[in-house]
C-alpha cells in the first residue's frame, strides 16, 4: 500500500500530552472541568487503550490528542512540536463510520485527500489502495446504504488510513458491530502494526470493553471521573495473537476489571 510517504524522521515518542486541562462553561456562569492534569506519551509501535467509566473524559482526551479540541491549559506535542490545530499525524475513526451518504465508497475515502489538495488521479489511486487494504476491492462505486455495518466501518478506517497517518485514533470503533465482525476488525487493526512496512506507527483506542483492551493494547490507561484524570497505567505483556481463553489473558482482564472498580 504505497499511499502518501512520510517526510519526518522517526522518533521513539510520537505524541506527548503535558498537564492537559479541559474546562467548559456549565451554562450557569460557572465552569466544569472535563480533564484535569492529564499527561500521556504515545510511543512508536504501540497500541494504547483508554478505558474508564462514562464521564471520565476518554473521548475528550482522544480529541485533544487529535487536535480537534484545544486544551484549556497544558500542551500536546506531536514529534516535539506543539499542536495549534488538527494533528497532522493523526487519522480518526469514529464510533459510527460517519460516511457521507451521497458519496460512493471511493469518493468518501478521497475526501481527506481532496482537502489536502491531492490531484484527482493520485487521489483515485491512493483511495483504491486503501479500500483494497480493508478488503473492500470491488465496492468502490457502492454507496453507504448498500453496505453492512462492518463494511461501513472498514470504509471509515480506509478513509483514515489513506492519509498514511503516524497514529490511528479510534473512538469505540467496534461497539456497534456484531461480535464476529468486531473480532475480525480488531485483528486487522492490530495487523496494521504487525510488519516492518507498517501502514500506521501507533494506535490509540477508546473502549468500554475490558477484553477488547487486553486483546489489542500494549498499555491500558485507566481513567477516573469527576473530573477525568489518569488513575493507573497497566502494561499488557502478553504474546500476540492473544487468546481470551488463555489463563494469563483472563488474569490480566481480572486485574483491569479490579482497577476500573477502584478508579
Secondary structure topology:
Blueprint: E1 13-25, E2 31-43, E3 47-52, H1 58-65, E4 73-78, E5 81-82, E6 90-93, H2 105-115, H3 120-133, H4 149-161, E7 167-171, H5 179-191, E8 202-206, H6 210-216, E9 219-224, E10 229-235, H7 247-262
Helix pairs in contact: 2-3, 2-4, 3-4, 6-7
Shape: globular
- In DSSP terms (H or I, runs of 4 or more residues), the helix count works out at 7
Within the largest sheet, what's the order of strands? Answer: 6-7-8-3-9-10
Count of folded domains: 2
- How large, in whole angstroms, is the Cα Rg? 18 Å
Ranges with pLDDT <50 over ≥5 residues?
1-11
Estimated structural class: alpha/beta
CATH first level of the largest domain: Alpha Beta
Kindly state the mean pLDDT as a whole number? 89
- Give the full name of the CATH homologous superfamily of the largest domain: P-loop containing nucleotide triphosphate hydrolases
User: What can be said about the biggest beta sheet?
Assistant: 6 strands, mixed
Q: How many E strands?
A: 10
Distance between the termini: 41 Å
Q: Provide the succession of SSEs.
A: EEEHEEEHHHEHEHEEH
**Residue share in helix:** 25-40%
What is the CATH-assigned architecture of the largest domain? Answer: 3-Layer(aba) Sandwich
Proportion in β-strands = 25-35%
Amino acid at each position: 500500500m504505497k499511499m502518501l510517504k512520510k517526510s519526518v524522521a522517526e522518533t521513539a515518542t510520537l505524541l506527548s500530552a503535558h498537564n492537559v486541562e479541559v474546562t467548559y462553561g456549565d451554562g450557569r456562569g460557572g465552569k466544569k472541568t472535563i480533564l484535569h492534569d492529564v499527561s500521556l506519551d504515545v510511543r512508536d509501535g504501540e497500541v494504547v487503550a483508554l478505558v474508564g467509566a462514562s464521564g471520565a473524559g476518554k473521548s475528550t482526551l482522544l480529541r485533544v490528542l487529535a487536535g480537534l479540541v484545544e486544551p484549556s491549559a497544558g500542551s500536546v506535542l506531536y514529534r516535539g512540536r506543539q499542536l495549534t490545530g488538527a494533528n497532522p499525524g493523526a487519522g480518526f475513526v469514529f464510533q459510527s463510520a460517519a460516511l457521507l451518504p451521497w458519496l460512493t465508497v471511493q469518493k468518501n475515502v478521497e475526501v481527506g485527500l481532496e482537502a489536502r489538495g491531492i490531484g484527482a488521479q493520485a487521489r483515485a489511486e491512493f483511495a483504491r489502495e486503501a479500500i483494497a487494504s480493508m478488503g473492500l476491492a470491488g465496492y468502490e462505486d457502492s454507496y453507504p446504504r448498500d453496505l453492512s455495518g462492518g463494511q461501513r466501518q472498514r470504509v471509515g478506517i480506509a478513509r483514515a488510513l489513506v492519509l498514511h497517518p503516524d497514529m490511528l485514533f479510534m473512538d469505540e470503533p467496534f461497539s456497534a458491530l456484531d461480535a464476529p465482525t468486531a473480532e475480525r476488525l480488531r485483528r486487522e487493526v492490530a495487523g496494521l502494526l504487525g510488519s516492518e512496512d507498517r501502514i500506521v506507527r501507533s494506535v490509540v483506542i477508546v473502549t468500554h470493553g475490558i477484553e477488547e483492551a487486553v486483546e489489542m493494547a500494549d498499555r491500558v490507561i485507566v481513567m477516573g471521573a469527576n473530573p477525568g484524570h489518569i488513575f493507573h497505567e497497566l502494561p499488557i505483556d502478553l504474546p500476540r495473537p492473544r487468546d481470551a481463553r488463555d489463563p494469563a489473558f483472563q488474569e490480566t482482564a481480572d486485574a483491569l476489571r479490579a482497577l476500573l472498580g477502584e478508579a
